[in-house]
TrEMBL record:
The keyword DNA-binding applies. Signal peptide: none annotated. The keyword DNA-binding applies. Keywords: DNA-binding. This is DNA-binding protein. Pfam families: PIN_9. Transmembrane segments: none annotated.
Length: 122
């Protein structure tokens, strides 16, 4: 099954020490997709953040390279929503606003639970 990974989700491994790829595999998701809008967002975070947040963004950027890249630019949340509908894919995100938008469209959402595992929440 396909899953689109949001910017904040790519930062989970550094921030919470959770291997998102192992967790996604456990949930049955074997195709990981990242739109170029997310990569652009990560590049901007690397330029603008400092300390641990910058390190998390750098690690996230390198993790994005392990995923299938889809060339879609624009506001990342809008791109993710459009791509999820087009690919009929779930979305891994911790963004509350994006999560609500996805749930309104009946798109499966995966979130971090109890800061130690991923779970399908809708």
């Amino acid at each position: 099954m396909k899953v689109i990974i949001d910017t904040n989700a790519l930062m989970i491994p550094v921030q919470f020490k959770v291997d998102i790829f192992e967790e996604l595999k456990r949930l049955g998701f074997d195709i990981h997709v990242v739109p170029t809008a997310v990569i652009t967002e990560l590049d901007n975070l690397i330029k603008n953040l400092k300390g641990q947040d910058r390190i998390a963004a750098k690690v996230a950027r390198s993790m994005a390279e392990r995923c299938e890249t889809v060339h879609m630019d624009g506001y990342a949340d809008d791109v993710i929503l459009e791509l999820a509908m087009k690919l009929q894919a779930a979305v891994l995100t911790n963004d509350i606003g994006l999560r609500r938008r996805l749930e309104e469209k009946n798109i499966p959402v995966i979130c971090l639970r109890q800061k130690n595992r991923l779970e399908i929440v809708s």
